[in-house]
């Protein structure tokens, strides 16, 4: 197996293993990793988003996040609201239950990050790996969504290295 294949399969294996572990950690909250990402994005942004805007910030669903958004509405975490300036546009915002669940998701994700960080080398050793992975995904929808989220967090003064 050449180096490119090794990298490709290791990224795939790491993604699957991370998803499996995160799914298990989120299970007690009754949410999937994709639903948790919706809650996290709405929590981070702090304002209602259209489905299109939401989709532009998601990594889990880069196509049409309508079905995913509906599942969060059905669960009672998110509610549709009319846009204040354009009544034709519907936006999604967290409900009180959704804010509570999003806070719990943030706690689960913090524990997940801490456990994951314990398996990694120091930050200086990670930086080149992160740069390689960013270059691999940069032109795709997931990479662009991550870049938009990082930029949005930076605008709000949130440390992007988290």
Can you offer a commentary on this structure?
The chain has 162 residues and is mostly helical. It has one domain: Orthogonal Bundle (Arc Repressor Mutant, subunit A), CATH 1.10.10.10. It is 64% helix and 7% strand. It has seven helices and three strands, in the order H-H-E-H-H-E-E-H-H-H. The protein has helices at 3-26, 33-45, 51-55, 66-74, 96-117, 123-137, 141-155, and strands spanning 49-50, 78-82, 90-94. Strands 1-3-2 form a three-stranded antiparallel sheet. The longest helix has 24 residues, at 3-26. It is globular and about 55 Å long. The two termini are 33 Å apart. The mean pLDDT is 89.
Tag the structure with descriptive keywords.
3-stranded antiparallel sheet, single chain, 162 residues, globular, 64% helix, Arc Repressor Mutant, subunit A, mainly alpha
Short description:
This protein is mostly helical.
Write the layout of secondary structure elements.
Blueprint: H1 3-26, H2 33-45, E1 49-50, H3 51-55, H4 66-74, E2 78-82, E3 90-94, H5 96-117, H6 123-137, H7 141-155
Helix pairs in contact: 1-5, 2-4, 2-5
